[in-house]
Amino acid sequence: MKNIIVGQSGGPTAVINGSLYGVVSESLKKSESISSVYGMINGIEGFLHGEMIEMNPLASTGELELLKTTPGAYLGSCRFKLPEDLSDPIYPTLFEKFNENNIGYFFYIGGNDSMDTVSKLSRYAKSIESDIRVIGIPKTIDNDLVATDHTPGFASAAKYVATTVREISIDASVYDNKKSVTIVEIMGRHAGWLTAASALARKFEQDNPVLIYLPEVAFNQETFIEKVKNALETTSNIIVCVSEGIHDENGTFICEYGSDVGVDTFGHKMLTGSGKYLENLVKERLGVKVRSVELNVSQRCSSSCLSKTDLDEAIAGGAFGVNVALAGETGKMVAFKRISSAPYVMECTTEDVNAICNKEKGVPINWITKDGADVSNDFIEYAEPLILGEVEIPMKKGLPEFAFRK
Amino acid sequence: MKNIIVGQSGGPTAVINGSLYGVVSESLKKSESISSVYGMINGIEGFLHGEMIEMNPLASTGELELLKTTPGAYLGSCRFKLPEDLSDPIYPTLFEKFNENNIGYFFYIGGNDSMDTVSKLSRYAKSIESDIRVIGIPKTIDNDLVATDHTPGFASAAKYVATTVREISIDASVYDNKKSVTIVEIMGRHAGWLTAASALARKFEQDNPVLIYLPEVAFNQETFIEKVKNALETTSNIIVCVSEGIHDENGTFICEYGSDVGVDTFGHKMLTGSGKYLENLVKERLGVKVRSVELNVSQRCSSSCLSKTDLDEAIAGGAFGVNVALAGETGKMVAFKRISSAPYVMECTTEDVNAICNKEKGVPINWITKDGADVSNDFIEYAEPLILGEVEIPMKKGLPEFAFRK
After folding, report:
1. Phi and psi (nearest 5°) for A160?
2. Is B63 on the interface with A (CB under 8 A)?
3. Among the four A195, A406, B6, B219, which has the fewest Cβ within 10 Å?
């Protein structure tokens, strides 16, 4: 009988602990094949320093159940890249530690950088004929992994973005006898999936957000100003959603234009986001009331807009990973395959992790309108089923109760 | 039989429409005394231009029910100050319009600027011996109205702040093997109630946020840096919550050290980023990883953290206003009187609006710890019952469904 170890890596999401719950709870059910379930603290980096905990006791304290709806990364995370060179001494060190702890199965929950770790460990395992099975479990709010319909974490973030943009739109319209522009900056440096999700906020055609800019197409400041001006002719209070990573045709990030926007008392440039820069641009060029809102980390850590579909899939993906590992698979990532959108039917499958790591999937160009300032109905049809369903969060004294390592 | 008119004024809250629902639904029940229920569009400013709608039809479409959980200001808002001089021609103009529409009862939902309107209209009514009864219904996330235990809107904003700070704290701790500082900027220009609510986020003593700064006491940058440095000795990832309105002993806003400021229509200084300024200060002085998060408008417009206590009281306050007006009161604001905290018992009452308008109530100095960097247990005991209870929001296609004027 072997033990399993599971870790989390990269940025947190609202359901990354749902995936952890899936791995741990499924492993506990397989007591005929798995004895102990270990968690790496701070991913592979912490494990290298011997940091791990036994997860089995969590089941009896109720902590495991709380995990499901706890945002963040319960085990702690890391951003640690293993060396390209598989003859580096770090690999034998790691596998020695695996053997010491009788590890038979290794699960890593993360995005494309984390899949790089899965790829390297599984290739090294093969090269030394180790029978340790290495499986990646996808997570990222960016939704930019290839070979999977979507990634757990995206849908809850998308639901947060759409909900919040709808609320900001209501907030902006209370002085509807005055003109105003609100610029909402949404996470996504290279992929615009999350910014695109703001389109779901519309209650009717022509509703806010009236303009949506993704990093998949070049951003032109003059065209933007022209479009804002036109939009203000028909809508008093307009909402514009922009990805943090929008850039011009030369690849210069729009936020880089903003480096001269503010200077602190030390004379240092205060770094601004693309939203803040555009706020100043609109103020200067159109002279209307403008504000910018950066949705910031709540996009990835808010528990208040959990998508039930997302959480269920995160748990199912974790459990599926355990089963394929027990069945002998290794060097794979759990992926999601869409059978149909209406009715929504999704299937878990596995894909070769080497074809996934270090790649990025953007929003298809033909899902972006020709003027580059909106998304098409294809995106809506894709995203709408993902955000369906609500999750009741355990509450204590009026606040969400979360699991945390003491 | 007379008609009633109700308006909303000032910044929106998550439950200002709850108060509106209370006024409208109670008025509809009083069909023996009230015939039509009108809503002013964009407060007294819109009413001056004849902008009003009949609210009675909303009851049959389900829109009135939706109002309860819709953030923002359904009727639209304004920031319009009536002239001090009651002999200004605007007053006879207004009262002529009231008479044209057979208005017997005037309700204004707002904060201290709006209570100024209630004060002036009721004093003018008295001076011309009009029998129109003028009642203020309190709302403000700032919780800064005098003569009331608290104001509707504060508790839901407080619940949003505490929930979000708890989530940000989890988010910040995922790399708990690296030191970091996160500065959260919370609304509140002069009163620190909402920033104080971040203390509710703690799961145990010494938990984040480790430092909390309110505008009620002077902020010293050197002491702040020293405290951050000390906190980092025992906690890897610290959260500091600051009010947007923190200032030094000379009254200079901390954000003024960072950038240019403007002035809004009321002559209030427009603040931009005490959090951003402190982010740069900590980076410069301590060289650790720092980020700042501005909670921004979601504090007042998020529907996802509605306090049931808050919403119930907003509705009850609106209904109470209708009943006292029918009983003959005028020139009053509905207020909340705390009978006891445990068990929580609150009573509606009325207070003289002239003693309320244009005043501000801050957090009592003896509820702030001596070092000026935290709140005492008195605040916790005060605030805890207010955020209790959750509200189910009607959902459609995975998103909250809100009422809105077509």
Report:
1. -65, -45
2. no
3. A406
Phi, psi of B92 (to 5 degrees): -60, -35
Q: How far is A54 from chain B (nearest CA, A)?
A: 18
Chain A residue closest in CA terms to B277: A264
Distance spanning both ends of chain A, measured CA to CA? 29
Distance CA B374, CA B371 (A): 8
Under an 8 A CB cutoff, do A173 and B76 touch?
yes
Beta carbons of B318 and B137 less than 8 angstroms apart: yes
pLDDT band, residue B260 (cuts 50/70/90) = very low
Cα separation of A48 and A9, whole Å?
Answer: 14
Cis (ω within 30 of 0) for the bond into A343? yes
Extended strands (E) in A310-390: 332-340, 345-352
Q: Which of residues 208-247 of B touch A (CB under 8 A)?
A: none
- At residue B49, does pLDDT exceed 60? yes
A73: closest CA of chain B, how far (Å) = 6
ipTM rounded to 2 decimals: 0.96
Q: Look at residue B264 and tell me whether its pLDDT is greater than 50.
A: no
**Enzyme catalytic residues of A:** 142
Cα B197 to chain centroid distance, Å, stands at 13
Over range B144-153, report the average pLDDT.
98
Q: Average of pLDDT values for A46-55?
A: 96
With CA atoms as reference, the chain A residue closest to B73 would be A174
What is the spatial distance between Cα B178 and Cα B285, in angstroms, rounded to a whole number? 18
What residues of A are in contact with residue B300 (Cβ under 8 Å)? 171
pLDDT recorded at residue B78: 95
Joined tokens for residue A162: 């759409």
Residue A358's pLDDT is 85
CB of A24 less than 8 A from some CB of B: no
| CB of A111 less than 8 A from some CB of B | no
Q: Which residue has the higher pLDDT, A226 or A267?
A: A226
In whole angstroms, give the CA distance from residue A282 to residue A294: 16
Distance from CA of B276 to the nearest CA of A (A): 8
The pTM assigned to this predicted structure is: 0.96
Rounded average pLDDT over A237-246:
97
C-alpha B144, offset from chain centre: 8
B72 touches chain A (CB under 8 A): yes
Distance from CA of A191 to the nearest CA of B (A): 22
Q: Chain B contacts of A268, Cβ < 8 Å?
A: 280, 284
Q: Can you give the pLDDT at residue B358? A: 85
Instruction: Return the percentage of chain B with pLDDT > 90, whole number.
Output: 92
